[in-house]
Amino acid sequence: MKIFTAQQIYEADKSTIVNQQITSDELMERAATQLFTWLHSRLQGAPVKIHLFCGIGNNGGDGMVLARHLQEHGYLIGVHVVTYSEKRSQDFLLNLDRLKERKIWPNFIGPNDELPKIDKEDIIVDAIFGIGLNRTPDDWVIKVIQHLNNSRAFILSVDIPSGLFVDKAPKNEDSIVRANHVLSFQAPKLIFFLPQTGIYSNQWEILDIGLDRDYLNSVDNVYELIGKNEVLPWYKPREKFSHKGTYGHSLIIGGSYGKIGAVILASDACLNTGSGLVTAYIPTCGYIPMQTALPEAMVITDTNEKMVSDIQFDITPTVIGLGIGIGQDNITTGALKEFLRTNKTPLVIDADALNIISKNKEFLKMIPAQSVLTPHPKELERLIGSWQDDFEKLDKAKAFSKQYDLILVIKGAHTITLYNGKGYINTTGNPGMATAGSGDVLTGMITGLIAQGYDSLRATVFAIYLHGRSGDLAVEQCGYQALTASEIIDFIGDAFLDLFNVQEGSGPQEEME
Ligand SMILES: NC(=O)C1=CN([C@@H]2O[C@H](COP(=O)(O)OP(=O)(O)OC[C@H]3O[C@@H](n4cnc5c(N)ncnc54)[C@H](OP(=O)(O)O)[C@@H]3O)[C@@H](O)[C@H]2O)[C@@H](O)CC1
Ligand SMILES: Nc1ncnc2c1ncn2[C@@H]1O[C@H](COP(=O)(O)OP(=O)(O)O)[C@@H](O)[C@H]1O
Ligand SMILES: [K+]
């Protein structure tokens, strides 16, 4: 599902008005009627007090229309207009008049006015600012926003939580509404998925307001949301007359004394993702544990007992997963340099191999094009330097990926894969996956898909989806706290089967913690 910029949404608005021959006011009516239908179907006329806080732009206009429909259906409403500017939008004014025609008199709030009392049992509709916010609100408006946040009432935000910009980081976190639920028009917004701004939308949902399909399909978007609908067409079915050679040979290089488990996890995940053959390259101390824990994997041992010291093997792998549990000893750094100097096989690089590369940036030029790097946030910072905010992080990461022609994965609650100027945002996964070794599992899964002939970008985006889905299916059985990396591996098969289950997880329309 595409994610659009504010500019693209305004363009879609215009082309909808032209192509569907409707007025902007009719489009607002359509959007706000959807808000009403959503709320009405849940409240069923309940006698709860609904406070609508409206701005003076089109977001406020949506609030005005919603207020009218609620009143017509007998709801108990209070309409408050936050008059932060003299420049009221036409459709806001039109719908303000329509309210007045129905004898609903809004309460106009200015800089020195007392704020309405809100009980924690009430419902707040937040329609103060939408995607038109372009500067931090004035101090008195921030006080209004704080008043909403402090009320402990349920807050339903229209389009986005007021106070968030769509394409840059907020400057003052007190200026943002903390929404319990966001009803966003037509398409998800990037801010829902970034750690800094995503925290303001506890849950979000998309309302399809019928914006011009042709325009939306033609837009060249930077970010794409990845759900089942996006990955399913990539799935490669197994052929009847295939054999294990058809599905590639993965080599997993890593491990050090005390960290052999990481290689076991990655190799196991790689096998469970369908790699035809898996060989692990580890220091000698890992030989027995590896062969015992995972009889399906073959093992090549380094000459060094405790660490990888000289990477030599006589197999021809399809792809190499590199770095999990490998440590950062000088001997290992030397081995990595020597290996990278001659290696031509595509790589999936993780963990301490990334840290070694961060300390020796000249290694970057030796990595084959379109290899995959999977840093968690701290590893990313070592690789690309620090950032001011999430938007700068994305820009720096995109530039890095372009400079070295690498696929860069930013791991997190919504893992983002960057390549060729585009970003693919994952929708699966849960906080139970914040557990030791879950990243090792992901490395094994990406490696396993590349082995089977998926191109590196698809393999990465698909594996991240499946990894999260495995975690989601596992958590249903064991709960967040008891979820372990091994448990994620146990559910990889179910995640594949789930691709063909039309009942659940069919798309990223709704997100729930
Ligand atoms: N296609 C769609 O998806 C549809 C969208 N619709 C709705 O329209 C909403 C966007 O509406 P909008 O453009 O009027 O902007 P909105 O957010 O209401 O802000 C109002 C104005 O405030 C101003 N301003 C900005 N920052 C400020 C500040 N700090 N302090 C004071 N003033 C500030 C700024 O004007 P400026 O002063 O910069 O000229 C801005 O224009 C969208 O979120 C959705 O709810 C639907 O109705 C129909 C279909
Ligand atoms: N809150 C979360 N929600 C969803 N996924 C998460 C969350 N926290 C971590 N993960 C996922 O778990 C994995 C953690 O990777 P990493 O930090 O490298 O772990 P490790 O080094 O222990 O293997 C990543 O794939 C990440 O996206
Ligand atoms: K809003």
Describe this protein's structure.
The chain is of the alpha/beta class and 513 residues long. It has 2 domains: 2-221, YjeF N-terminal domain (Rossmann fold); 246-501, UDP-N-acetylmuramoyl-L-alanine:D-glutamate ligase, CATH 3.40.1190. Helix content is 40%, strand content 16%. The protein has 18 helices and 19 strands. The chain has helices at 6-19, 24-43, 58-72, 90-101, 139-151, 195-198, 213-218, 228-231, 260-272, 287-293, 330-342, 351-359, 377-384, 390-404, 438-451, 456-478, 485-490, 492-498; strands at 2-3, 49-54, 76-82, 107-109, 123-127, 154-158, 181-185, 204-207, 223-226, 249-253, 277-282, 298-301, 319-322, 347-349, 372-373, 407-410, 416-419, 422-426, 510-511. Strands 1-9-18-17-16-15-14-13-10-11-12 form an 11-stranded mixed sheet, with helices on both faces. Helix 4 (90-101) links the parallel strand 3 and strand 4. The longest helix is centred in the last third of the chain and has 23 residues, at 456-478. The two termini are 20 Å apart. The model is unreliable at 505-513 (pLDDT under 50). It binds ligand NPW, adenosine-5'-diphosphate and potassium ion. Ligand NPW binds next to helix 1, helix 2 and helix 3.
Please give a quick description of this structure.
By secondary structure, the protein is an alpha/beta fold. It is about 40% helix and about 15% strand. Potassium ion binds next to strand 5 and strand 6.
